[in-house]
Write a structure and sequence with these properties.
With 437 residues, the protein is of the alpha/beta class. A hairpin with a 2-residue loop joins β23 and β24. Strands 6, 7, 8, 13, 14, 15 and 16 form a seven-stranded mixed sheet that branches. Strands 18-25-19-20-21 form a five-stranded parallel sheet. It folds into three domains: 103 residues, Alpha-Beta Plaits; 196 residues, FAD/NAD(P)-binding domain (3-Layer(bba) Sandwich), CATH 3.50.50; 106 residues, FAD/NAD(P)-binding domain (3-Layer(bba) Sandwich). It is 29% helix and 26% strand. The termini are far apart. It has nine helices and 27 strands.
Length: 437
């Protein structure tokens, strides 16, 4: 029996297409395995916060979760979905929704490293009556759910305020201006509560504000009091979400006190609280903590660190074009900041690190740093420390003695101080999660 010529042609085209598909899939899986090996070698294979775990008995390696992850944190290794780039994962959960076999779930901690989470009631109240926690600090990283938690927690706060016999001038102090804090603030406005929102940073957005440009931060709609549905699409970038929040604040008149860091909470005999901050004290009947898990930036505690030219995260390298910059730190965030700055025209970059080598960093960052260092675009001072920061210069302590560098700006990437000790001082009970929801 003769096979028609057109069927032979179509069959050949189909065979080529299948072959190309299999080749590309094989290359991708080799790349995934290499990414996992690189992260493991650098000690970066343990996720810091909320992240997906895979049930190997359910996963059949469809790759749907890999395609759904904008951060490329997931890959297919040995035929199963695997977290190959844990440091990139932000726990927004797009992978969980995309999985056709429901093989993924979001958890905190791992079997090797636990994460402390406050114990909360179903109304998001801690064991300290009148103190509530919503959002990432309470164990939830999804913006949609943290937004809902802020709204629900404020409903519970209303009940506590109604029961209170205190004469405190405020009904509630909200700490944090991320999704949970914004949502709670709008609920406080709608219910005509006397509120105050404190934010340690100088801008709206909390943790979202510090994500890289164009990073996808939200994949599902959320509901806000006074606004309604927050439907911005299936892959919402940082800039779009921040723009939306600023529009909401402008329309509703929601007020924030920026640059005010939480320093302590003192319970009062009448059941109210004195909330101590870097700028004063606030007396309220209830407190809602809507903090992220990044905590407060770890400081160097050196003279001059309070100067306005000192920041603790690089948001936009372009703003430092043509300037003389010092980056302090030895992790990926420090190396990436130095690399991004060095790529700006005319920017002079010095990287200071107290140890003798960069250990827990991605190999890609290490190689890019070496290349820029060889090209003379980054000056690296290992085993050095900042002694003082002055108006137009910084002084380093190095193995060669004190070094004075002309300077326009300092970026300190020394990690964060988690709020766990503060919570424990207040008496809030914690539990440790070892890879559990």
């Amino acid at each position: 029996m003769l096979i028609p010529a057109y069927l032979t042609v179509y069959g050949g085209v189909a065979a080529v297409a299948v072959g190309v598909h299999l080749l590309l899939r094989q290359r991708r899986r080799h790349a995934d395995a290499a990414a996992l090996a690189e992260a493991s070698q650098a000690g970066l294979n343990l996720p810091a916060s909320l992240h997906p775990v895979v049930d190997p008995n359910r996963c059949f390696g469809s790759g749907a979760c890999v395609k759904a992850c904008p951060e490329e944190a997931l890959g297919i290794v040995d035929g199963k979905a695997t977290l190959v780039n844990a440091s990139a994962c932000i726990g927004h959960g797009a992978c969980v929704s995309a999985c056709p076999s429901q093989a993924l779930s979001l958890v905190f901690g791992t079997s090797e490293r636990g994460v402390e989470i406050p114990v909360l009631s179903k109304e998001f109240e801690t064991n300290v009556r009148g103190i509530f926690i919503a959002g990432e600090l309470g164990g939830m990283g999804l913006i949609r759910k943290t937004t809902e938690q802020g709204r629900q927690a404020m409903n519970a706060v209303r009940q506590r305020v109604a029961e209170s016999r205190s004469n405190a001038p405020l009904d509630v102090v909200i700490v944090g201006s991320g999704p949970a804090g914004i949502s709670a603030g709008l609920s406080a406005l709608q219910h005509q509560l006397r509120y105050r929102i404190l934010e340690q940073e100088d801008s709206l957005g909390g943790t979202v504000y510090h994500y890289p440009r164009k990073k996808v931060v939200m994949t599902a709609p959320a509901k806000l009091d006074m606004v309604g549905s927050m439907s911005l699409g299936t892959e919402v970038a940082k800039e779009s979400l921040l723009s939306f929040w600023h529009e909401v604040v402008g329309k509703t008149g929601l007020r924030f006190q920026f640059g005010e860091r939480l320093e302590g909470i003192d319970p009062q005999a009448d059941g109210s609280f004195i909330v101590r901050s870097s700028k004063g004290a606030h007396h309220a009947k209830a407190v809602l903590l809507a903090l992220g898990r990044r905590g407060s930036p770890r400081k160097l505690d050196v003279p001059g660190e309070e100067r306005s030219k000192v920041v603790y995260r690089l948001i936009d390298a372009e703003q430092y074009r043509g300037q003389r910059m010092l980056v302090v730190g030895g992790g990926d965030s420090a190396l990436e900041a130095a690399i991004d700055l060095a790529r700006q025209p005319g920017t002079q970059v010095t990287l200071s690190y107290r140890s003798q080598a960069f250990s827990r960093v991605k190999d890609k960052n290490r190689q890019q740093l070496k290349q820029l260092q060889d090209e003379g675009r980054i000056l690296v001072w290992l085993q050095s420390q900042v002694l003082r920061i002055e108006d137009d210069q910084v002084v380093l302590s190095t193995q060669d003695g004190e070094q004075t560098l002309r300077n326009d700006g300092v970026i300190i990437c020394a990690g964060g101080v988690l709020p766990t000790p503060l919570l424990q001082d207040i008496g809030i009970r914690m539990e440790t999660k070892y890879g559990t929801a």
